[in-house]
Design brief:
The complex is a heterodimer of chains A (316) and B (442). Chain A has 316 residues and is an all-alpha fold. Chain A folds into 2 domains: 2-68; 76-303, MetI-like fold (Orthogonal Bundle). Chain A has 14 helices and 2 strands; from the N terminus they run ααββαααααααααααα. Chain A has helices spanning 2-33, 35-55, 72-79, 82-112, 120-133, 137-147, 152-159, 174-184, 187-199, 202-210, 215-243, 247-252, 264-274, 278-303, and strands at residues 58-59, 67-68. The model of chain A has no long low-confidence stretch (mean pLDDT 88). Chain B is α+β, with helices and mostly antiparallel strands. Chain B has 2 domains: 33-161 and 324-363, D-Maltodextrin-Binding Protein, domain 2; 164-321 and 393-441, Periplasmic binding protein-like II (D-Maltodextrin-Binding Protein, domain 2), CATH 3.40.190.10. Helices cover 48% and strands 12% of the residues of chain B. Chain B has 18 helices and 11 strands. In chain B, β1, α2 (60-76) and β2 (80-87) form a beta-alpha-beta unit. In chain B, α2 packs antiparallel against α14 (349-355), α8 (213-225) crosses α9 (240-255) and α9 crosses α18 (423-441). In chain B, 45% of the residues are buried. The model of chain B is unreliable at 1-5 and 8-45 (pLDDT under 50). Classes of the chains: A mainly alpha (316), B alpha+beta (442). Chain A binds chain B through residues 29, 32-33, 35-36, 39, 61-64, 76, 80, 82, 144, 148-150, 166, 168-171, 253-254, 256-259, 270, 273-276, and chain B through 6, 9-10, 13-14, 16-17, 20-21, 94, 97-98, 100-101, 118-119, 122-123, 125, 262-267, 269, 275, 403-404, 407, 411, 414-415, 418, 420, 433, 436, 440.
Chain lengths: 316, 442
């Protein structure tokens, strides 16, 4: 009996061991499958992320080894660098113009394209194209050509005896002109809104119609509340993108005139790659990281008050 | 079977991941090879095969000429392979510093004048060419020019690829149209007075487009004080009153219609890119000789005169610079071969005949003369260099070339140009910020 028990125990142990071994080998295979991404993440994201935190406490020019300077970079940024306050102001203004503008435009376009007519897919594709091109140098160059004093926009204004307007040359208008670019690139937000609109149950619209609600009332009482989770997602993603905006200002105005478009991304770039103050630029980037994190946190915390989930939010 | 398929897939992924890593490794190898590679050893004998990497920036015409010169050199020196790396100026400095930092920089590269302090003087990342004088035909160059412009602390940081100087470039048709004599001796008063008259005659045109730190404020202050912008001891070379006066003059150029309004011109960093200049609506531009060919593509009637010099100037302030000193990376495995190639490229008559004025006027006087005799260099460029060399200002010291300070000055010039800051306020603030910056450079 005891021999049988011992044999059974041995077999069980072998089976368990074999099962563990198979499980482990499956884990290895899984890891191997995702290894390209994993390596990319570790080497190109996590490592620079950690190193930039270390560099933010150093004086590092790339030519010489980094020298530890403690909080000197942060102190200089907050107490001696007026460009920091200016870039923060410009970036906040940009976010305030570009993000609501883009979301509003994307929502309007999504509503317009959410109709069941023949060939609507073609229109949706056409309206999505600017997003595919979005963020590229070529589009920024095109924007510059459109809005220079001699550009197409002023030429068109000239036909109705208006202008010319210094869209990019005036410190009062340049930031506004640049913030129009992401609004034009509304495609990705529009697609998400379209998907959200498709999810709104038809019976709710029917119930609203039966109750005699007008179209506007239906939009504000039915469509908008049910779209609110998509709005939250779009808002957070677009806000993060807007805080990090670089290409448009770099290519179109170079931060001018009079630093009126010197977005935070440009300030970091200038310190990192013009003056090779890598430690200083790292400190700037960590400040931006904290700002974005704080705004994202606030949006999440306050979202309960204005987002509506059909399942009451449990499915989040 | 299932097991084999699973491991087959795993192997496939492994190979894929391995190839990604191998790709990275190959790049690293390529990078290391950058510092001179081949079968030769560090003490490169004449028959050893040597590979040198040579990078530069510029226009298509320049690329074509340099590639042709490289081919000729490799034909004459079969054991040497020159790997060309070329492109535009945008991002060149950023790339170069990153490469220097990673020890993957090319063996030979030109240096822009404002990088010399960081890379060659403070960074000490290029070879002292005096240590390679046996491989370089130094006699072909004007010795005083070399000592004045490419020798820092007794160390020769590069060989000038050309001679460049600042002049007043003018549109002949514009001058003729508004009755301005071509032989006008330009100084800051004539600039103001004539510019004002021109704009009164035709409100759509201006005598000047944009001005910046290098083309106006630095030489203007140099003429006024006789000092460097920043003295060698890192003190500021002028007083607040001097700077206030300079800003007030600069502001008067806008107020009196001498200069195109900043809102119209601020997008254009160079005169040749300014649409009004291209259309003939701007009369003058202060420019380096090397930029003239591009300007001439829009204004064929372009000619040059001396840079404006005030009657009471303590120094001419006329900027004369070696066009992009060609430096040798300290990490090169083949310093002697690199030096031989650099010397040939910049002094051999057959190379000069190919390069012509692609790096401005050739630095070797004999070659410059020969090309001029054969009409192989742009006569306007040749005239510009000759004009600038008639009364050159003092070479600009390293600290005055500091890019952060130059950017700061340009920012304050823009504030004055847009009327956002009064001259006295701008002068006070700029000096305070420069002092802060200089303190951090100590």
């Amino acid at each position: 009996m005891s021999k049988q028990a011992a044999t059974a125990t041995t077999m069980t142990t072998k089976l368990m061991s074999s099962s563990r071994s198979r499980k482990r080998s499956r884990q290895y295979v899984g890891l191997l499958y995702i290894s390209p991404w994993l390596i990319g993440f570790l080497v190109l994201t996590l490592f620079p992320f950690i190193m930039s935190f270390y560099y933010s406490f150093t004086d590092y020019s790339m030519i010489k080894a980094p020298a530890f300077v403690g909080l000197a970079n942060y102190i200089d940024i907050f107490t001696k660098n007026p460009d920091f306050a200016n870039s923060l102001k410009v970036t906040f203004l940009y976010v305030l113009m570009a993000v609501p503008g883009k979301l509003l435009f994307a929502l309007l376009m999504a509503l317009a394209l959410n109709i069941g007519i023949r060939g609507i897919g073609v229109f949706r594709t056409i309206y999505y194209i600017p997003s595919i091109l979005g963020g590229s140098i070529a589009v920024s160059v095109l924007w510059r050509f459109l809005f220079t004093r001699e550009g197409l926009v002023n030429t068109l204004l000239g036909y109705v005896s208006l202008g010319p307007v210094d869209w990019l040359g005036s410190p009062k208008l340049a930031l506004f002109t640049i913030s129009l670019l992401p609004i034009w690139e509304f495609g990705s937000s529009m697609v998400l809104f379209l998907a959200g609109l498709k999810q709104v149950p038809k019976e709710l619209y029917e119930a609203a119609r039966v109750d005699g609600a007008s179209r506007v009332r239906t939009f504000f009482r039915v469509t908008l509340p049910l779209l609110s989770p998509v709005i939250l997602f779009n808002l957070i993603m677009q806000m993060i993108n807007a805080f990090q905006q670089f290409t448009a200002a770099f290519v179109i105005t170079g931060g001018g005139p009079v630093k009126s478009t010197n977005l935070y991304g440009l300030l970091m770039y200038e310190n990192a790659f013009h003056y090779f103050k890598m430690g200083y630029a790292s400190a700037l980037s960590w400040i931006l990281f904290i700002i974005i994190m704080a705004f994202t946190f606030v949006l999440f915390r306050t979202s309960d008050r204005w987002t509506h989930y059909e399942d009451g939010g449990d499915g989040r | 079977m299932r097991q084999i398929t699973k491991w087959g897939k795993a192997l496939g992924i492994g190979v894929l991941a391995g190839s990604v890593l191998a790709g990275c490794a190959a790049n690293e190898d390529g990078g290391n090879a950058a510092n001179g590679s081949g079968n030769g050893t560090a003490s490169d004998g004449e028959t050893k095969n040597v590979t040198l990497r040579f990078s530069w920036w510029g226009s298509e015409a320049r690329h074509k000429a340099v590639l042709e010169a490289i081919d000729l050199y490799m034909e004459q020196n079969p054991n040497v392979t020159i790997e060309p790396e070329y492109g535009g100026f945008d991002g060149y400095y950023q790339k170069l510093v990153t490469q220097l930092s990673g020890h993957t920089a090319p063996d030979l590269t030109p240096l822009s004048a404002d990088w010399i302090d960081d890379i060659a003087v403070k960074g000490n990342l290029v070879l002292d060419l005096y240590t390679l004088k046996d491989q370089i035909n130094l006699e072909a160059f004007d010795q005083s020019f070399l000592e004045k412009y490419v020798v820092y602390d007794g160390k020769m940081i590069g060989l000038p690829m050309g001679v460049n100087g600042m002049v007043t470039a003018y549109n002949k048709d514009f001058l003729q149209k508004y009755g301005i004599p071509e032989d006008t001796q330009w100084d800051w008063n004539t600039i103001h007075d004539i510019g004002q008259q021109v704009h009164q005659q035709d409100s759509s045109v201006y005598l000047l487009g944009t001005l910046d730190f290098r083309t106006f404020l630095q030489p203007y202050m140099s003429q006024k004080t006789g000092n460097q912008w920043i003295n060698d001891d890192k003190t500021i070379g002028f007083t607040e009153a001097d700077l206030t006066e300079a800003f007030a003059y600069y502001k008067s150029l806008f107020d009196d219609g001498v200069m195109q309004p900043a809102a119209e011109s601020s997008l254009y960093s160079e005169p040749a890119k300014n649409v009004l200049f291209q259309k003939g609506g701007i009369g003058l531009a202060f420019s380096l000789a090397s930029a003239l060919p591009q300007m001439k593509t829009y204004v064929p009637s372009l000619d040059v005169a001396s840079y404006p010099i005030a009657a009471d100037a303590k120094t001419s302030g006329v900027l004369v610079v070696p066009a992009n000193p060609l430096a040798i990376n300290k990490d090169t495995k083949y310093p002697e071969e690199a030096a031989k190639f650099a010397s040939w490229l910049l002094t051999a008559p057959e190379s000069a005949a190919i390069l012509r004025d692609n790096f401005s006027v050739p630095p070797a006087a004999a070659n410059a003369q020969s090309l001029a005799d054969q009409n192989l260099i742009d006569p306007t460029v040749a005239k510009a260099v000759q004009t600038a060399l008639q009364d050159p200002g003092d070479p600009i010291n390293g600290v005055s070339n500091n890019q952060e300070i130059a950017k700061l000055v340009n920012d304050y010039m823009q504030q004055v140009a847009f009327g956002q800051s009064a001259p006295d306020k701008a002068a006070k603030e700029l000096i305070e910020r420069m002092k802060d910056k200089l303190a951090s450079l100590q």
